[in-house]
Amino acid sequence: MSTDIVKTYILNRSSEEIKLSLIIGGIEQTGTSLITLNEDMVLKDYPGDLHQKVIGQNDNLHLKKLNIITVVTDTSPNHNHTDLYVLLEGGFVTKGYKMEEEVQPGASTVYTAEITFYQF
Amino acid sequence: MKYLLLIALSIFGTTAFAQQAAKNDDKEIKQVKFDLLKAPSSPASALLGFAVSDIEKPTDLSDFMLSLQSATSSYTKLPSSYAIDIAPFYLFRNKGADFSTTGKNGLQSTKFKDYLRQSFVVSLALRNPDSAFNNFKPTSTYGALGLKFSIIRPKYDDETKLKLESIHEKQAALLMNYKSGLEKKRKSPAYSKFSDRNIFLLDSIKKLENLSVSEKQEQAFKMMEDPSGEFYKNELKKSALDTVFKREIETEHSKLEADLQEEAKTFTGNREGLSVDIAGGLSTEFREKRFDNSKIFNSGVWTTFGYNWANGSSIWGWPVTFTTRMKYLHWII
Predict the structure, then answer these.
(1) Backbone angles phi, psi at B194, to 5 degrees
(2) Within 13 A of B251's CA, how many CA atoms are on the CB side?
(3) For B195-234, what is each residue's pLDDT tens digit?
(4) CA within 20 to 30 Å of B4's CA: A46, B49, B128, B146, which one?
(5) What is chain A's mean pLDDT, rounded?
(6) Strand spans (E) along A13-80
């Protein structure tokens, strides 16, 4: 499975909020994220999971690019599995994308996600 | 102060139970082993005598469904011998539970709500013995249900907190390197041509006047999800380029990544303070393998108190443990 995704997210014609969640795995791993929307910094050095962060509204995100970079470091004494689940809600459909990688003890995986928003 | 009171109550409680047990059955007390005092990691499996290695522990929903499918021969029959531990808040992590170390509601959290969700395990077990052993009869089916969770969880000790801070700082530095590196590399025409082409494909659907907005959305969604289509392949090519860009950036900053690995390798996750865990379970014997002919087979509640010191040493025990087996009742300390 890849550690990088490039996706397009279809927006609705509404002012409903678009929410982003980032879920870091597995148990006892340490993750930090950096999120930008076009040139704007949304979150810098955010530790751990992110739940339903409002990125914007359906009406003001057309053709904007959401870039997520998350580094997950293996700090679990029980396994060397890292994963990242990216969940987007509020648009045409709720969409989740999972990335995962086994690493050497103590090593890190850098996950990237580039999401382009599109409104019809 | 309240912790001291809890420990004192626990000691008095176990002393009282010891006396009661001594009166009931001296022989039982002599057979008690110290490791029996530990709360089992999987109460239902412990009640039905499963080895730890035989317990399924799914880490996501698809794992769980695969495990269930395999044990039930594709949902056609009950499993003959099956034990599973389910951490429901881990399986449904998108509902708000955080299992990372540094998250606001993660493993470093000292809020009861957070560590209850992180430690909550439901265990299920089913056994159809082939032959008689212990108190199990081959003519019966046994089922068990158990729960386990923490009431008090110690916080990370100072050394662990410092190490996590250091790991977080290195991760932050790494993120900045990748951010600036990727921004630069993604400006290449080889990368942006795929974006331009995909926007063109979406614009083509947008211009279709005979379709309503929802029809356009559905058509675009179908196009995006088709692995053999141009749109999907363009996105794959872009993500493959990202992987290449990342490798180049990694080479430029290999020392930082190596330092981070050294730091993380020695992470222990030690905690300091009082801990209280509770585990409990109940098993039923279905005589002649009939579900309308059952009785309680055994049950148990394990309450374990403990204390961890910063140097990694710990003392635990003083448990108030209550188990029943068949018709007999034992208080074990």
Answers:
(1) -70, -40
(2) 5
(3) 999 999 999 999 999 999 999 999 999 999 999 999 999 9
(4) B146
(5) 96
(6) 17-25, 30-37, 40-47, 50-57, 65-73
Q: Which residue has the higher pLDDT, B193 or B331?
A: B193
Contacts of B256 (CB under 8 A, 6+ apart): B170, B173, B174, B177
B101·A107 Cβ contact <8 A: no
Q: Which of A109-113, B59-63, B129-133, B293-297 has the highest mean pLDDT?
A: A109-113
Segment B153-164 shows an average pLDDT of 94
Distant-in-sequence, close-in-space partners of B18: CB < 8 Å, separation ≥ 6: B29, B331, B333
Contacts of A10 in chain B (CB under 8 A): 217, 220-221, 224
Q: What is the pLDDT of residue B285?
A: 94
Cβ pair A114:B242 closer than 8 A: yes
d(CA A22, CA A67): 12
Across B269-282, average pLDDT: 92
Rounded to two decimals, the ipTM of the complex is 0.97
Could you give phi then psi for residue B175, rounded to 5 degrees?
Answer: -60, -40
Which secondary structure element, helix H or strand E, spans residue B223, and what is its range?
Answer: helix B213-225
* B159 φ, ψ (degrees, to nearest 5): -65, -40
pLDDT (tens digit per residue) in A32-64: 999 999 999 999 999 999 999 999 999 999 999
Please give the pLDDT value at position B323. 61
The residues, any chain, with a CB within 8 Å of residue A77's CB and separated by 6 or more, are A28, B267, B268, B269
Name the architecture of domain A4-119.
Answer: Sandwich (2.60)
Q: Where are the domains of chain A?
A: 4-119
Q: What is the mean pLDDT of residues B60-68?
A: 85
Listed residue (A5, A77, A26) closest to B91, CA to CA: A26
**Residue B213's closest chain A neighbor by CA?**
A120
The answer to whether A114 faces chain B, any CB pair under 8 Å, is yes
Q: How many CB pairs under 8 A join A and B?
A: 177
> 3-class SS at B125?
strand
CA distance B236 to B246: 15
- With contact defined as beta carbons under 8 Å apart, do B84 and B55 qualify? yes
What gap in Å lies between CA B72 and CA B155, rounded to an integer?
41
Nearest chain A residue (CA) to B266: A106
Flag whether residue B290 sits within 8 Å of chain A, measured between CB atoms: no
